[in-house]
Design a protein that fits this description.
It is a single chain. The chain is of the alpha/beta class. It folds into two domains: about 170 residues, HAD superfamily/HAD-like (Rossmann fold), CATH 3.40.50.1000; about 120 residues, 2-Layer Sandwich (Hypothetical Protein, Haloacid Dehalogenase-like Hydrolase, Chain: A, domain 2). The protein contains 14 helices and 18 strands. Strands 10-9-8-11-13-12 form a six-stranded mixed sheet, sandwiched between helices. The protein has a five-stranded parallel sheet with strand order 4-3-14-17-18. Strands 5-6-7 form a three-stranded antiparallel sheet, covered by helices on one side. α13 runs antiparallel to α14. The radius of gyration is 26 Å and the shape is globular. The two termini are about 30 Å apart. The N terminus and C terminus are likely disordered.
Length: about 425
């Protein structure tokens, strides 16, 4: 156990007992002095100290939950993990924390390696349209009605949008990512700063790409969970979004270009990330949650930046967290903006990456809280010199307040 986190170890304070200046002592140093002068007090406090030391040495995260996006936040776009992040997540879960990835990726096969690597009980995919257990069993779905599917494809054709949808033919067993893309449209999307195209999507969801017409895709008797549309012309994307809204078809804008500062995707999907999270809470997939933190970077993560409720209908404090180069809307709404940028080192990870940053900061907050608790106990028992204790508590309180999030989860590393 390390000593008190004094900002300057050589900083001097006045001991009110004799007026002399002295260095701020570490806890071990002070306990050693106490053992010489007040051994009976040390003996009386052995069990109490043991309890605090256990809190310090292995923090508990019971009642805390982290719901995080995957691509650009938990991994890079090729699904690469930083091993430090994996260890932080495992330690967090071992200490009682609840960790649930919530992704826009389609198909359980595209996230199976993540479920296995982190030993997750379940995962939310397809922007909240589906929840699968660890064995790949579908336990929740939210499908788009066929009439809305027809209206969506009609708008895509009217405004010249590129679309893609993954489906499995129950008669042949063949499964593809179907799209009306061309090599020209791929290059046009990249020219406006959007790397997320049909050709890139196949890497994420691990399906071959196949050109098709909307009529061919609608003729495949499989679930309609999501239709993604895109265009280098952001005005066309916005026009389709507005039309979908007018027709009452659930949709969201996504993929904001750093180059144009506009959204170049519009997605039609019946589910939402926050809706699936709330369903998981209501149906007992997670334990009792007292505090939550949601983490994301894109437009499809905005739905997580909303209030959650426990099974009794009471609101759960929810800290909205964004990576540093998330889309403008998510940065504006975030309580916490991480220093991590998903395009530095490994996206969302690497040195100072999102998951590492979150759990390192939370551990530091717990450390500060544990020190403050110990000092307050000592102050109550008049073991420390009062002025010295108050001086240390004041410094720790300033440190803690500087790092505290609006909802009190204790993770705050503002860029």
């Amino acid at each position: 156990m390390e000593g008190f986190p004094a900002e300057n170890p050589d900083e001097k304070v006045v001991d009110s007992a004799n007026g002399a200046e002295e260095k701020v002592e570490t806890f071990e140093e002070h306990m050693a002095e106490m053992e010489k002068s007040e051994p009976e007090v040390v003996i009386d406090r052995v069990e109490e100290d043991k309890r605090y030391f256990e809190v310090f040495e292995k923090f508990r995260f019971d009642g805390h939950a982290v719901f995080t996006d995957i691509d650009g936040t938990l991994t890079d776009n090729d699904g690469n993990f930083d091993e430090r992040a994996v260890q932080y997540i495992k330690k967090y879960r071992e200490a009682g924390g609840i960790f649930v990835p919530v992704t826009g990726r389609a198909r359980f096969e595209s996230v199976k390696d993540i479920v296995e690597k982190l030993d997750l009980p379940f995962i939310i995919i397809n922007n909240g349209a589906e929840i699968y257990d660890r064995n790949g069993n579908l336990i929740y779905k939210n499908e788009i009605p066929m009439e809305q599917v027809k209206q969506t494809f009609a708008l895509a054709e009217e405004y010249g949008l590129i679309w893609m949808q993954n489906k499995k033919n129950p008669e042949t067993g063949e499964e593809y990512l179907y799209s009306n893309y061309t090599e020209t449209t791929e290059q046009e999307m990249k020219a406006v700063g959007i790397e997320d195209t049909p050709e890139n999507e196949v890497k994420r969801i691990k399906l071959p790409l196949k050109k098709a017409t909307s009529e061919e895709v609608m003729g495949i008797n499989d679930l309609n969970l999501k239709i993604q549309m895109m265009s280098p012309d952001y005005k066309a994307v916005r026009a389709v979004y507005d039309k979908l809204q007018e027709q009452g078809i659930p949709c969201m804008l996504n993929m904001q270009s750093e180059q144009t500062k506009e959204f170049h995707w519009v997605e039609v999907i019946a589910g939402t990330k926050i809706g699936a999270i709330q369903w998981a809470i209501d149906n007992g997939l997670v334990g009792d949650i007292k505090t939550a933190q949601v983490v994301g970077d894109g437009g499809n993560d905005l739905s997580m930046f909303k209030e959650l409720h426990n099974r009794d209908g009471e609101p759960i404090p929810n800290t909205y967290t964004a990576v540093a180069n998330g889309c403008e809307e998510i940065l504006e709404k975030a309580h916490v903006i991480l220093k991590s940028k998903y395009d530095e080192a490994i996206r969302g990870l690497g040195k100072g990456g999102a998951m590492v940053e979150i759990f390192e900061d939370e551990t530091k907050m717990r450390e500060i809280q544990a020190f403050t608790d110990i000092l307050n106990q000592l102050l109550d028992k008049k073991i420390y010199d009062q002025k010295k204790v108050l001086n240390i508590i004041e410094k720790i309180q300033k440190n803690r307040d500087n790092r505290r999030t609006p909802d009190g989860f204790g993770v705050n590393s503002v860029a």
